[in-house]
Each structure stands twice: as structure tokens, then as C-alpha cells.
TrEMBL record:
The lineage of its organism: Eukaryota, Metazoa, Spiralia, Lophotrochozoa, Platyhelminthes. This is Flavodoxin-like domain-containing protein. Keywords: Flavoprotein. InterPro entries: FAD-bd_FR_type, Flavdoxin-like, Flavodoxin/NO_synth, Flavoprotein-like_sf, NADPH_Cyt_P450_Rdtase_alpha, Riboflavin_synthase-like_b-brl. Transmembrane segments: none annotated. Residues 1-40 are annotated as: Disordered. One of its GO terms (molecular function) is oxidoreductase activity. It holds the Pfam family Flavodoxin_1. PROSITE patterns: FAD_FR, FLAVODOXIN_LIKE.
Length: 466
């Protein structure tokens, strides 16, 4: 089941008390003078299978970018908050999807098992703030010092029986354990006309208001975040005087692209993880050419694990539940077309990608020798997908040169650039315009960049992964 919004809002649980976003007790608490306190501990987490929930978490991370303690992590690494010895002013903002028939995404299963463990007793996340104390003079138990507080949005598809099952069950479980839902549970439905943004944008506004009003965090709202400088996610540098000889081999019969394993191949998981490398030796269509379904019989054989050890390893017998991970490639025609749009960048220069933001480790699956732009567009970036709203927000920020040094443009290009920036802003602010431009006609990333050539010409190496 793909991650995706449904305009359903489930009332927040309050365990017999008012939630952190309303109620007389909370209003009194917000304006009550108290000693200087440390900024709230804030974690933005996601559990994502196809990247929709991850993209939502990244957008929320940008909302809270002025906060020193924000961390964007996979939900399985957020297990430290269940339970914690020090729950003072903890806030967890989570975006999680539902996959398959009500299953959690792979990168949150560890967290899911811990949250559902019977060893966790009811109320264990309530903390020590239920009674009156110096830091909580009202003693209402709803203070940020009293318990773990959380905001949760789920992404699902109502065409499946277990619609948003993971988010609903996780919300109930956290409330049972004593955590406080600081805002209503938002349920996003992929079948909605406007896609995930119809439920996500109101949720993001609620979260940004919560951070600003309750925790005194300088946080951008949906509109103002467009003009705020954001540092690149990664540090991308050209490796001097080293050109690539990237090569892919295409079989004429089946058009199967095989990437050579070696310096220019992907960084594969180590054998101890259970992955086994395979090579496609046959790709045969088993349905008639005039049949509406293209069903294939794909034959695999053991493949060498590296250029240094060309002999294939022996396979273990297949077991029910084994997963086939396909490493896809974009067509050479699509890559060449996009490279012509990005003609200001050298497609053959090797790049070094290193960590810039402590919350974003370097991508783990890049070639050891360093990727090239051509390799990234062929094997790494999905240039054939329909861009999300965050893509247009980032492209507009790049076009405006916010936080970057950009080259001067001619008068003609400057006029065109102003038009492109205005149009990109419309897509960010108006989900109907966005749906009409790219969602309904299924316009791809490559096609979008061709439609905004001056903005695309301002993309620098440091912004490729943004």
C-alpha cells in the first residue's frame, strides 16, 4: 500500500486532561511566569516505504529548522523515547505509512515491536509531572514536563482494507502508554483528489503553530518558509582532474540495463546481511503481444559480488517471504535530455558526497570511487516520477538564489526567471494548480525541469540531493 491524505481528523487523546493545543489549563500555563528553561527536546521521525512519509518529515524538519535539537531519523531509531528516564519537554512528531495489508514500513518495524511490547506498562510514558512541582505549579499533568507529547500523521490508501492501520494503532498505543497527543491524528489518503497535501498541509500548519506558541520555537509557516535560507543536505564537491568512464550495457532483445559491478557499480550490502547478488540472464514475455498485460518470466543466476572476485557465490535455497530488490535505471534518452537542460554541469566529473547536516548521513549506496552526474541521473535519482510539492518549493528557493551564490543573468533570462519563480510559488501555495500541472497529466521531474530552464540552470552541485 503506498504512503499517502485523507481529510479525516481524529480527536486527540488527552487521558482525562486537555491537550497541549487548547483548553483553559493550557492557556494559563503558556502565560504563567516560570524560570528560564532549556529548549524542548524535539524529534521528527518517519516510517516510510516509498518515500512519501519521509518527504513529509523533511518538510516538517524545514519548518523547525531554527531549533537546535531537531533530529530527523527513522522511527526505529526513535525507540529511545519509549520509555525514557527524562521526559522533560519531549515532543515527537511522527509521519508513518501503512504498507501491504496493514504492515508497518521496514524502517520502523523495530520501533513498532517495542511500542507494542507487553513489557511496557500502561502509563509508563506519563513521566513525573502528574503531581505539583516547582517546574509545574499547576500540577495538571498536561505540562510538557509531565509526559512524552506527540503529533502523528498517517499515510495510507483507502482502497485497501487496512486503511492507515499503522497510524491508528500507534496513536491508540501511545495514548494508552500515557503519552499526550498534542494535536489531532491526521489520516492521509492516496485516493484523495489532491493527494497527500490535502491532509498534510493543515497538519503542518498545526504543528508549526504548536512549536511557535507552546514551545517558543522560531518556526516558519507554510508560506514564509519559501524565502528562508536552508543549508544543503550534503556537501557535494567535484574531485579534481578525474573523469569517469561510466558504462552500462544494454541487451538489444530485452532492453535490460546491467550496471557493471566495480568502481562504478552501486555499493551493495555486505553478504552477512543476507543479500545475494543476482544477474538477469533471461527476460521473456509469457503473454501474447496483443494481450493487455505484459507478464514476464525472469531468470536469475548467481553474479559476482565484486570485480575482484569474479566467481559467483553459491545461492541459498529461496524461502517464502524472501524479497527481490531491483536496482532500476532510467533510459539513456531521458538522461541525455535532462543533461541538456543541466548543460552548465559537467556530467562526467566524479563527485565526493560528504555529510553537511548532522541529521543526514551520506547516502550509503553510491559508488566507492564517487558518482558522476550522469551516473546519478541514470541509477540514483528518479527523474521519471511525478514531483511532489516539496520539489517545487526547493526549486523555487534555488531559483531565487536564497542561501547560494548564483551567476548573474541576462535581461531576457531575468524576465523569464521572474515568471518561473512566480509560477513555482503558485504550485507551492495552491494544491489545485499543482494537481492540474503535474498530478493529473503525470508530468515527470525531467519534464518539469525542461519547463523551467532558467531555474534549472541555477542548480549547483551542492543542491543536487536537495
Amino acid at each position: 500500500q503506498p504512503d499517502t491524505p485523507h481529510s479525516t481528523m481524529v480527536p486527540p487523546c488527552n487521558n482525562g486532561e486537555e491537550s497541549g493545543t487548547g483548553g483553559g489549563g493550557t492557556s494559563s500555563q503558556l502565560h504563567h511566569p516560570e524560570p528560564a528553561r532549556q529548549p524542548p527536546q524535539l524529534t521528527i521521525a518517519y516510517g516510510s516505504e516509498t518515500g512519501v512519509a519521509q518527504d513529509a518529515a523533511l518538510t516538517l524538519y524545514n519548518f523547525a529548522r531554527s531549533h537546535d535539537e531537531v533530529g530527523i531519523v527513522a522511527l526505529e531509531t526513535a525507540a529511545d523515547c519509549l520509555p525514557s528516564n527524562d521526559l522533560r519537554q519531549q515532543l515527537l512528531i511522527a509521519a508513518c505509512s501503512t504498507t501491504g495489508q496493514g504492515d508497518p514500513p521496514a524502517n520502523m518495524r523495530k520501533f513498532w515491536r517495542l511500542a507494542m511490547s507487553r513489557r511496557l506498562t500502561q502509563g509508563c510514558l506519563h513521566g513525573n509531572g502528574s503531581s505539583q512541582s516547582a517546574n509545574n505549579p499547576h500540577g495538571n499533568g498536561d505540562s510538557a514536563t509531565a509526559r512524552l507529547r506527540f503529533c502523528l500523521i498517517g499515510f495510507g490508501d483507502s482502497s485497501y482494507l487496512q486503511y492507515n492501520f499503522v497510524a491508528k494503532k500507534l496513536h491508540r498505543r501511545l495514548c494508552l502508554l500515557g503519552a499526550n497527543s498534542a494535536c489531532p491524528l491526521a489520516l492521509a489518503n492516496d485516493q484523495d483528489e489532491l493527494g497527500p497535501d490535502q491532509a498534510f498541509l493543515p497538519f503542518a500548519e498545526t504543528v508549526s503553530a504548536l512549536l511557535t506558541d507552546t514551545f517558543s520555537v522560531r518556526c516558519a509557516c507554510v508560506g514564509s518558509c519559501l524565502d528562508a535560507p536552508l543549508p544543503p543536505l550534503y556537501r557535494v564537491e567535484a574531485i579534481a582532474a578525474e573523469k569517469s568512464t561510466d558504462s552500462t550495457h544494454t541487451t538489444a532483445a530485452n532492453q535490460v540495463v546491467v550496471v557493471v559491478v566495480g568502481a562504478d557499480g552501486p555499493r551493495l550490502p555486505p553478504p552477512e546481511t543476507g543479500y545475494q547478488l543476482a544477474r538477469i540472464v533471461a527476460n521473456k514475455r509469457v503473454t501474447a503481444e496483443d494481450h493487455f498485460q505484459d507478464t514476464r518470466l525472469i531468470t536469475l543466476s548467481p553474479a559476482p559480488t565484486s570485480a575482484e572476485s569474479p566467481s559467483p557465490t553459491l545461492w541459498s535455497p529461496f524461502q517464502p517471504g524472501d524479497v527481490l530488490q531491483v536496482l532500476p535505471s532510467n533510459s539513456q534518452s531521458a538522461v541525455s535530455s535532462l543533461l541538456s537542460t543541466l548543460s552548465h554541469l559537467d556530467p562526467e566529473t566524479r563527485l565526493r558526497v560528504s555529510q553537511s547536516d548532522p541529521n543526514f548521513p551520506p547516502p550509503p549506496d553510491l559508488p566507492p570511487a564517487g558518482p558522476t552526474l550522469r551516473w546519478l541521473l541514470t541509477n540514483y535519482f528518479d527523474i521519471s516520477c511525478v514531483p511532489r510539492r516539496s520539489f517545487f518549493e526547493t526549486l523555487r528557493r534555488i531559483a531565487m538564489g536564497i542561501g547560494d551564490e548564483v551567476a548573474t543573468t541576462t535581461e531576457e533570462d531575468s524576465s523569464r526567471l521572474d515568471m518561473e519563480i512566480e509560477r513555482l510559488g503558485e504550485f507551492v501555495r495552491d494544491v489545485d494548480e499543482l494537481a492540474a500541472y503535474c498530478n493529473r497529466p503525470r508530468r515527470t521531474v525531467a519534464e518539469t525541469l525542461r519547463d523551467f530552464p532558467v531555474s534549472a540552470s541555477r542548480i549547483r552541485l551542492s543542491r543536487l540531493f536537495d
